[in-house]
Each structure stands twice: as structure tokens, then as C-alpha cells.
Write a structure and sequence with these properties.
The structure holds two protein chains of two kinds.
Chain A lengths: L11 H10 L5 E2 L11 H12 L13 H13 L10 E4 L1 H13 L6 E6 L4 H8 L3 E6 L10 H7 L4 E7 L11 H14 L2 E5 L39 E6 H4 L8 E4 L2 H15 L4 H13 L1 H24 L4 E2 L8 E2 L2 E2 L5 H12 L1 E2 L1 E2 L11 E4 L4 H15 L4
Parallel strand pairs in A: 1-12, 3-4, 3-5, 5-6, 6-7
Antiparallel strand pairs in A: 2-8, 7-8, 9-11, 10-14, 13-14
Chain B lengths: L2 H24 L2 E6 L4 H14 L3 E4 L9 H7 L8 H16 L6 E7 L6 H6 L6 E4 L13 H12 L7 E5 L3 H5 L7 E6 L6 E9 L2 E9 L3 E8 L4 H16 L4 H13 L5
Parallel strand pairs in B: 1-3, 1-4, 2-3, 4-5, 5-6, 6-7
Antiparallel strand pairs in B: 7-8, 8-9
Helix pairs in contact in B: 1-3, 1-4, 2-8
Classes of the chains: A alpha/beta, B alpha/beta.
């Protein structure tokens, strides 16, 4: 019984949130939820669609054509050319897009999916849901969380179905440079596996550090965000995924999209159809308004996150006896190392219990995340100040 | 009526009349692109070719193409969003725009979108186009229309507003759209894949970085040209065909042509 699901765990982030919800007056810096409300223009569009009777019925499985057309226009602005009729699918958030893609590309002969560690906690579980086996390739802080191709190549086998990664990476905030991504593209081309690129944080890039090559021994921070979906030579085996959850503060709307060459999307569509029939229509109407009219909000959110990033980093500097970290260049997470080295789960639970502050243990993001914690600065400034006030008290043994 | 509705109706009323006044006063040449999909890419293509030929071109801002967006596009103004004070400022700007004198013939390329049956009556009450381009009739608006024929009837209303010396460009592969030719006695151009299209495409190949295809142009003498675009999807081929149809029918105005020639001659530096 439950053969497939017995090896699947509830995401550690959700586990922590669940525990946190039972503790009164807890401050959570755990879940990656922006503190902002959905932009007004988006909410109004949803209300209008609702009142006009547009949302009661299914849309096409691929999504409402107007939305896909708008997505195509947006992609073209970013140097990505995909046909809205055959190459774009609107999904119920990015995780549905990821799962539908994994189910489509995993088969009996090719069932391994390469994941970076650390990377988003739910990837491994999604691979298992799709009947695959997650294979981790460790990224290390020493190498500035960049990809070690020697390790990566060793993990690629005949059974490799795909590589799935988040760029910019969650939880490290690393932006993978174009040269590394191109190498992945060439490897996928040669060894015949799919690339699944999850780019939900691409709008939150803070460009105050200059790019430096790995060979320089300094942190790499590519200022120019690049997607493999821009490269025509890789389009036949690259699936790019984007969600409106983070960029437009729409986590609860469960709306995102994927795009790829029509040969792949044609197959993914079958899985998407059997999973959800179509993305929620009210959310599709909201997404259309977001893409058309809410881009200014992204700029506001980014500026706000940048301020919060500074606040969190300042606190971590003050607590340098207990944490070391690399300043993230993107997303709204920082991934500090615990000093001295300790068990991340044990620490997170103790912090939750004693300081009433929720953070995510680094082990949730893969084996090389052990010894770290993820702190979200997506939460409000007030929450961040309060959380660090408590963390300081905790370290001063006043709690 | 709640306050929001009252403000909306007031803004809509003033925008409509200010846009109409602008059109009567300045008499721009108006090209309207309508249809359920592919308006944006057609708009971009024809704006591109007309600009290349030195026409003074203006298009919709963003996707401003309905009851409030269209007048704003005509006036070249942004939306006031939900701020009454901003809308008051926009209406004042619209008044000021209407007091100015503009030199040169303007070409307005406007997308027109309908969401429900009465929309077309409202929009054609503002704009009387000289050229209409109809892209597609798909199931996009099915919630507000009984069927696709009902949508086609709305487009017939638009076609009826074209003057006798105007131009109608139709998707030659859509039977519903082709039928709409019955509502116009002037020049009609069909674009598409079908044999009888005036601008017909064939030999389409999807290549790594886009699409390659041939276009047959049926004039007194047939002409065949090779095309390569960096985008994917049939709708981009339609947009390219419409671009060619527009290019064929809109030659550079003589005044601008000679102005450019003289400018180019004067620009030959060092000789």
C-alpha cells in the first residue's frame, strides 16, 4: 500500500510552518511568501472577470488565449521566442508545471533527475511523485554555490532523464552565470536529457556586485541574468518555468506557466490535462492583468526586498560569531552557515521553541545544505527586526 | 449607481468625446486591427513597415484597446488607474492636446478588442477606420457571446464603417472572416495559406531559430519572395503577410520621400 507515497515527505518548509502555527506569537522567516498583497489592478481584474461571468467554466487546457498571447509578448521582450498557440501552457503555479514536466520526461529507462544541493526543497519530492529518483550534485559555499562540472558529469548516466534547477537558486540566491548554463546545455545536448529551468526569482536581482569568474576565487555574481530558453539550439530539450507567485505577490492564486518547443509541450499538455484540466480561470484573468499592468509593482517589491536584504545582512554581521554567510544577489533568501557547525534541524527546532522564530533547516534543501539555515527576507521589516531581536536574545542565553 | 461606477462613466464619457474631437480636428489616417487573437504582432509589423517608410505612426499604448483604452490611445495618454486626481489631470491633458496644432499627416494604428456584444457599437462610435485588418475569430470570448458567428457579426459592424476608398485586409483561411467581405464593396486583400489568397504563404519550414517561408504576391504579374523570421507560430507568418500587404498599399508619401532624399544628400559628409 502507498508504495509511491511512502517515500515522499511533506516538504520541510511546510513541516516547520506547521510546527510554527502551533506556537503563539511566532515570527516566521521560513516560507518564501512575499509580505505584500497582490497589486490592486490584479485584484480588480479578477473581480471584474468574476462579475462578468468569465470564470465559471474551464478554459482551454493550455490556458486562455489572451493570456498566452501576452506571455508570448513578454517572453519576446526577454529574447525568448515561443508560439502561444503550441508552445506555452498556463499552469497551476510552478510546482504543477514542474511535476507535469517530470511525469512527462521520466520513464522506466530514464528515471534519474539531477538536482543541485542545496536547491528548492520540493524538487526531490516532485521527482519521487513522478516516479523518478533524485540524484544530488553538491554545490558548496567554498565554490560560491557555483556548479562543479566535474561532479555534475560524474552523476550523468544513461538513466538521466533531466536536470532540474532553480535560477536564481533558492535558497542561496546564486545566479548561475551564462557560461555555466551553456555548459549544461551542451551536456544535455550530448547526453540527451532534458533541462528544466525554474526561474521564479528572476525579477529579484540586486545588482550591486560585479560578476567574477570562478577561477578568480571570488564569489560569482553574474549581473546579466540569462536563460537557456533564449538559446535556439537548446529549445528542443529545455523547459522553462515561471510563476507569478513571487514577482506579483500572487502565491495564493496558484498561477504560472511553462514554455518549450512544441514537440515537448504537446506531451506535457497531456499530463497537465490529466492533473488539473486547466489552471484556475479566475487566476488566469488575474495573471493577464498582472502581466499587462503590474510591472511597476515588481520594481517596488524589488526595492523593498533590497532594503530588507541589507537589514538582514546587517544583523548577520552583528552575529558573526554565530553565522557566516554570502550576501545573496537575488531572490529573497539568505543562507547562513551555523557557527560552530551544528545540526540544522536541531537548531531550527530549538530556535522555534525558545525564540519563537521559524527558519528552514538547510538539510531540507539537500545533503550539502546541512549546517545552514534559510532565512527569508520576504517578510515585513517589522517581522525581520522582531525575529532578530529574539535571535540575539537566544544567542545571549537570555531565552 | 455606486461612486466607482459614476466616476468610470464620467471618465468614459469625456474620453470618448475628447477622442472624437481629436479625430475630427486632426483627421489622422486610421488603421484598425481587430480579431480575437494576433492583434499585437500584426500591429507591431505594420507599425514597423510604415515607420521604415517615414510615415508618422502612432499605436496603442500597452494593450489599451477597449472602451477606455482606445480613446487613451487615440489621445496618446496613459491610464489614471484608480486615482481620481490622476484622471482629472489626464482629462485636462486631453483638452490641451486638442488645442494644439499638429504638422504632418498622422497614421494611427489601433488595436480594437471586444469583450461583449455592445462593445463594437461603442468603439465604432469613436473611430471610423480607413483600413481594417481582421485577424482571427476564435473561441476566446465564448462566455459573453453565444457562438463564433455572433462575434463575426460584431466585426461586420466594424467593416461597415470603412469608406468606399478604404482597404480591408482579411485572414483568407478563416471561412467566417472571408464571409465578412460581403459587407464591403471596396478593395479587399486576403492573406493566408489558401490558394486564392492575394498574399499567400507556402513552403513553411520551422528551423532552429525561427521560420522560413515563401510568399506569393498576386498582382498583374506574380511575385514570389523568400522570408525568414526569428519567431515561431503561424500567427507570425500571418503578421508578416499583412505587413507585406500594407507595404504594397502604402508607399512613402512624396513630401516625406523628398525630405529624406534631401536629408541624405546633405548628410554626405566630407565630400
Amino acid at each position: 500500500m502507498f508504495f509511491r507515497t511512502q517515500k515522499i515527505n511533506l516538504s520541510s518548509i511546510k513541516q516547520i510552518e506547521l510546527l510554527a502555527s502551533k506556537i503563539p506569537d511566532v515570527v516566521s522567516l521560513a516560507q518564501g511568501i512575499p509580505s505584500f498583497d497582490t497589486p490592486e489592478v490584479v485584484k480588480k481584474a479578477a473581480i471584474k472577470a468574476l462579475n462578468n461571468g468569465k470564470v465559471a467554466k474551464y478554459s482551454l487546457t493550455t490556458g486562455i488565449p489572451e493570456l498566452r498571447e501576452t506571455i508570448e509578448q513578454k517572453l519576446a521582450e526577454e529574447n525568448m521566442y515561443y508560439d502561444f498557440e503550441t508552445e506555452i501552457i498556463v499552469t497551476a503555479g510552478s510546482i504543477e508545471a514542474i511535476t507535469a514536466t517530470l511525469i512527462t520526461v521520466i520513464n522506466d529507462k530514464k528515471n534519474e533527475v539531477i538536482l543541485f544541493s542545496p536547491s528548492y526543497a520540493s524538487y526531490a519530492e516532485a521527482v519521487k511523485v513522478a516516479g523518478g529518483k533524485p540524484v544530488f550534485v553538491n554545490l558548496t559555499e567554498k565554490e560560491y554555490w557555483r556548479i562543479n562540472f566535474e561532479l555534475l558529469e560524474k552523476k550523468i548516466t544513461k538513466s538521466t532523464a533531466a536536470i532540474l534547477f532553480c535560477n536564481p537558486n533558492n535558497p542561496t540566491g546564486t545566479i548561475f552565470p551564462k557560461e555555466d548554463l551553456m555548459k549544461i546545455g551542451k551536456l544535455a545536448q550530448k547526453k540527451k536529457f532534458f533541462i528544466i529551468s525554474d526561474e521564479v526569482y528572476k525579477d529579484f536581482i540586486y545588482i550591486d556586485q560585479r560578476p567574477t569568474p570562478l577561477s578568480s576565487g571570488q564569489a560569482t555574481n553574474d549581473r546579466q541574468f540569462f536563460s537557456l530558453a533564449e538559446e535556439p539550439e537548446f529549445r528542443k530539450f529545455t523547459v522553462r518555468i515561471f510563476s507569478l507567485s513571487k514577482a506579483y505577490a500572487m502565491t495564493g492564486w496558484r498561477i504560472g506557466f511553462l514554455h518549450s518547443d512544441e514537440e515537448i509541450t504537446r506531451e506535457i499538455l497531456k499530463t497537465h490535462d490529466s492533473l488539473v484540466t486547466c489552471a484556475p480561470v479566475i487566476s488566469q484573468c488575474a495573471a493577464l492583468a498582472a502581466l499587462d499592468y503590474a510591472d511597476n509593482e515588481i520594481i517596488n517589491f524589488r526595492n523593498e526586498f533590497n532594503k530588507r536584504r541589507k537589514i538582514v545582512c546587517d544583523y548577520l554581521d552583528e552575529l558573526s560569531s554565530f553565522f557566516s554567510y554570502q550576501k545573496p544577489n537575488s531572490s529573497y533568501f539568505v543562507f547562513p552557515k551555523l557557527l560552530p557547525k551544528r545540526d540544522s534541524w536541531k537548531f531550527s527546532l530549538e530556535l522555534l521553541e525558545k525564540a519563537r522564530v521559524a527558519v528552514v533547516p538547510g538539510a531540507a534543501f539537500g545533503p550539502s545544505g546541512e549546517g545552514y539555515i534559510r532565512i527569508s527576507f520576504g517578510r515585513s521589516e517589522k517581522d525581520i527586526h522582531e525575529a532578530f531581536r529574539r535571535i540575539k536574545l537566544y544567542f545571549n542565553h537570555q531565552l | 449607481m455606486n461612486l466607482d461606477n459614476f466616476y468610470k462613466k464620467t471618465i468614459k464619457f469625456f474620453l470618448k468625446w475628447l477622442a472624437k474631437f481629436y479625430l475630427v480636428k486632426n483627421k489622422p489616417y486610421i488603421i484598425v486591427i481587430s480579431g480575437t487573437t494576433n492583434r499585437y504582432w500584426v500591429r507591431e509589423e505594420i507599425a514597423g513597415i510604415l515607420r521604415e517608410r517615414n510615415f508618422l505612426v502612432r499605436t496603442n499604448k500597452k494593450n489599451f484597446n477597449a472602451e477606455i483604452g482606445l480613446p487613451l490611445s487615440i489621445l496618446g495618454l496613459s491610464s489614471g488607474e484608480k486615482k481620481i486626481s490622476k484622471w482629472a489631470e489626464i482629462l485636462w491633458q486631453a483638452v490641451k492636446i486638442n488645442t494644439k496644432e499638429y504638422a504632418g499627416k498622422e497614421y494611427l494604428i489601433l488595436e480594437m478588442a471586444i469583450d461583449r456584444p455592445e462593445d463594437m457599437d461603442y468603439l465604432t462610435g469613436i473611430v471610423k477606420p480607413h483600413t481594417v485588418i481582421l485577424t482571427t475569430i476564435t473561441m476566446i470570448y465564448r462566455e459573453n457571446f453565444e457562438n463564433l458567428d455572433e462575434i463575426a457579426n460584431e466585426y461586420a459592424k466594424l467593416i461597415k464603417t470603412i469608406p468606399w476608398n478604404g482597404l480591408l485586409i482579411l485572414n483568407g483561411d478563416d471561412k467566417r472572416i472571408k464571409k465578412l467581405s460581403a459587407f464591403f464593396d471596396g478593395k479587399i486583400i486576403y492573406c493566408g495559406f489558401e490558394e486564392d489568397a492575394h498574399f499567400r504563404t507556402f513552403d513553411i519550414k520551422k528551423v532552429l531559430d525561427g521560420q522560413e517561408f515563401k510568399v506569393e504576391i498576386k498582382r498583374k504579374e506574380k511575385e514570389i519572395r523568400d522570408f525568414k523570421i526569428r519567431t515561431f507560430g503561424k500567427h507570425h507568418i500571418y503578421a508578416a503577410l499583412v505587413r507585406e500587404a500594407i507595404a504594397d498599399n502604402f508607399t512613402t508619401p512624396a513630401k516625406e520621400f523628398f525630405a529624406k532624399i534631401s536629408k541624405d544628400l546633405l548628410d554626405v559628409s566630407g565630400e
